[in-house]
Please model this.
Amino acid sequence: MERAPLTILLAAPRGFCAGVDRAIKIVEEALARYGPPVYVRHEIVHNRFVVEGLEAKGAVFVDELDEVPEDGQPVVFSAHGVPKRVPAEAARRKLFYLDATCPLVSKVHHEAERHFARGRHVILVGHAGHPEVIGTMGQLPEGAVTLVQTVAEAERARIPGARPLAYITQTTLSVDDTAEIIAVLTRRFPEIEGPRREDICYATTNRQQAVKAIAPRADALIVIGSPNSSNSNRLVEVARKAGCARSMLIQRAQAIPWLALAGVGHLGLTAGASAPEVLVEEVIAAFRERFEVTIEEVTVTEEDVTFKLPLALGA
Model:
């Protein structure tokens, strides 16, 4: 039976960013150097395939430090960052810990501390409950940060006292949605202080730009990523706003909704910053089994960012 033709518009950049790559390498290097178990507080990155792969090598994922025994084995903090109470508790218990917080998230933490030290109340643009937001808010005393999630919340935000203001943002937000929120904040509070450089990370921005480049040409678009991945969910939203209503998030090839893709001639394909390239290859292979596939890679920029491992791992 003759297979229908399908052009896959493959977004680039896609997949792992430097912060995710570094975090995974920290766990792998700790396992190689100290042997299993290596404890990891929360998912090291938001991807089940990655987490299960590290578990198979001897990583043990825990929710809190009280699950970590005092046996001298390392505990790794996830790429999303942690509240200050977490390393403080680890130090109190004399645990050997490695901080895999993405350096670009650490940058936001430092901004929050700098603003607070200068007497400013901090507005954080982000999503409630996300580990990165919990970690960022946890850098400062309770009440020092006001979380704003939407334009509507920015319009009605009430700031305690008459203190000067500053804003920071989660690193994995929609670039366009965040710009709208910041526009409201700067209109309402003209003296508000912003970051010296944008907080939304280079990888989030680049992946969204790549999706914008392919979405108008795609009959449907697939983002490979986990349901709890902020940057992956934002890619789906960006694709829909850019003109591809049939945009969807899947974790891997076995979840491809074939019936929903009936009649598709051009398929957009990308992966969130915590999804490995092997899952992209797996999805492409699944389409090759059903279609006569042509790959067209659409590149909007090249990435060459790398981050060093912690000194404790000899970097």
Q: What stands out?
A: The longest strand covers residues 4-12.
